[in-house]
Amino acid sequence: MSPDSVLETVLDTAAVVCLAGGALLCLAAGVALVRFPDLLSRMHAATKPQVLGLLLVLLGCGLRLRTSADVTTLVLIGAFQLATAPVAAHMVGRAALRERRPDPDLLVTDELPADGGPSSPS
Amino acid sequence: MSPAPLSRRDRLRNRAVAVAVLVSVWCLLWGSFTWANVLGGLAVAAVVLAVFPLPPVTFAGRVSLPGVLRFVLRFLLDLVVSSVQVAALAFRVGHRPASAVIAVPLKVRSDLNITLTSVALCLVPGSIVIDVDRATGTLYVHVLGVRDRAEVERFRRGIWRLEERIITAVGSAAERRLVAAPDPVSPQSSADRKGTRV
Predict the structure, then answer these.
(1) Is B146 an interface residue toward A (CB < 8 Å)?
(2) Is the ipTM above a cut-off of 0.95?
(3) Could you say which of B80, B126, B197 has the minimum Cβ distance to residue A52?
(4) CA B126, CA B42: separation in Å to the nearest integer?
(5) pLDDT score of B74
(6) Distance CA B37, CA B21 (A)
(7) Contact assignment for A109 to B101 by CB distance below 8 Å
(8) In which domain, by residue range, is B42 found?
(9) Which of A73, A81, A83, B61 is the most buried (most CB within 10 A)?
(10) Which stretches of chain B score pLDDT less than 50?
(11) Residue A85 and residue B122: Cβ atoms within 8 Å?
(12) Are B104 and B142 part of one and the same domain?
């Protein structure tokens, strides 16, 4: 086997590991979305394992495609994912908070001010 | 902390950074860094900045490369560890994950620090910033999968350490002194309000 084909095998194997890991994390996010008890907990599932999941999938794609034009697009997708996911999570969380306070039965502690916090509609 | 009006030099620098970022995005979209792409990117950046001027950002700090590296490495580690934790929580049968809403007063109240800390917190599984008090620099964070007060306090200290790493990476000398101060006393250490509606 020539050194080139060895390198290709290594890269392909790494790509498979990344793609499978990323897919598993996305599956976990889906399961959590169904199973978690309230909206705020679900927001964790909807925004988080999927961030690393997507990054792993992108890394896997990059390792497999190996052309600069494709890789630059993947880098952009990753960067915008990191920039936008927190905003999405925050906006949904805040909207939920304005609607009603989190269920105290699910909380160990709740340190939001009694009037609903700085951005409450009052 | 109301920011002082920006000097002409600061505004020029902010604009230069914005142009550089926009040009790189443009080149990444086209897939190659050629002169044609850079010139095209400059034109697009000029139009974008003229049509959508950026809000002023005060940045008094100094970027420290080892600080940035340390922050990024620790961030990636946190991302992996907590992704696995939340994923494991999702597959645990017969378990309702408890959570908490905690108030964390940041030590440095600049807009930039509040933003960076919130974004870094939001990207790491297990925590979402659900509200921000800009005047006092307080983040209200929803934490997933905590079982008791001790874990809540550990998490709160973790957020202060995160802020420290961010300030070490991009903060000014004055801000570095602020984060080196001892942690504030946690605001509600006595009130465990589980089960009582407030």
Answers:
(1) yes
(2) no
(3) B80
(4) 40
(5) 92
(6) 14
(7) yes
(8) 8-51
(9) B61
(10) 1-2, 189-198
(11) yes
(12) yes
